[in-house]
Amino acid sequence: MNQNIESSTTKTSEIDLHQAFDVIQIGPNKFRGKSPLTKPHVLNRGAYGGNLVAQAILVAIKTSPAGFKPHSLHSYFVKGVNDITPLDWEVEEISNGRSFVNRIVKGIQNDIVVYIANISLTNRNSHREAVKNGESPFQFQTPEDSYIQKARIQDLPVDDTNEKIFLHIKTFPEVKRSTTIEPTRKLSYLVKWGLPKPGSTDVQELQPLEDPIYQFLGLSSISDWISLEYLINHIGIDSSQLPRHTVSLDHSIYYHDDDFDATKWMAYSMKLVRIGLGRVLVEGEIYNDKGVHVASVVQERLYLINGRQKKSKL
């Protein structure tokens, strides 16, 4: 049975990222979170899914050889996670190769599996290191949306800050004003992760993450922040009313490179693939602050809305 720990304060100035995400080893390939994972909002039914993904990545790294970093994650949110009890984690070592290792990671709360992930890690996931070693790996990426390339990011206001999960959001004017662009199923916004500097009221000044492992935790946490409302409005569905129910069903990430800083503004471009039977399938691309595509995301979400279908121009 998990040991109950009082939930830590939600003021980011008083929260240590290590306290919020770190785990304690309690047995061979078994870990326990130092603190419960938090909800993004008091009204949410469970802990933020991105933080489950981040802590799963942490324990996978801890059970892998030195130098191995995440290559991909495929996971399922099995049950809601409360913000009272820290998660226990069990890791099964599936394979240990020279270039890739594979782990199955189970998140357990009150003796019930609430999250499960298959995680692949590799020691060859850095384009910079490859070039440094004299290699010339072929590289291609989908370019960012044109309005991202033209934007003066520093001039855009911060639209949302969720201190409970360390997320900060900026939205492009073209996305806010749906009438300024043609109806589309692909939209972008800016996101970054971390803590404000002590004594600073400027959300744009965040503490750098000295431990590279925490960069992957930050990117993993960011990956679950999917703004379906923007996407749904842009295809002609009125989502002005709050959804009756929304929850992530599964989550996959492909980490293409380690050249990113989660505490800098990263573009998150999303494409709506399909809506049907109360489920929404979304594909996402995450770009670093240099415009390099560093991660891809695929997620299906249960999304039951009370909105009405409008005439779509698509």
Tell me how many strands there are: 14
Order of secondary-structure elements: HEEHEEEEHHEEHEHHEEEEE
> What Rg is obtained from the alpha carbons, in whole angstroms?
19 Å
Q: Summarize model confidence as the mean pLDDT.
A: 83
Task: Indicate the overall shape.
Answer: globular
Tell me the β content: 25-35%
Q: Low-confidence parts, pLDDT < 50 over ≥5 residues?
A: 1-14, 307-314
Share of helix, binned: 10-25%
Class of secondary structure makeup: alpha+beta
Set down the secondary structure blueprint.
Blueprint: H1 17-21, E1 23-27, E2 30-33, H2 49-62, E3 69-77, E4 88-96, E5 100-109, E6 112-122, H3 127-132, H4 146-150, E7 160-162, E8 167-171, H5 173-176, E9 186-193, H6 212-222, H7 228-234, E10 245-248, E11 250-255, E12 266-276, E13 279-287, E14 293-304
Antiparallel strand pairs: 1-2, 2-4, 3-6, 3-11, 4-5, 5-6, 7-8, 8-9, 9-12, 10-14, 11-14, 12-13, 13-14
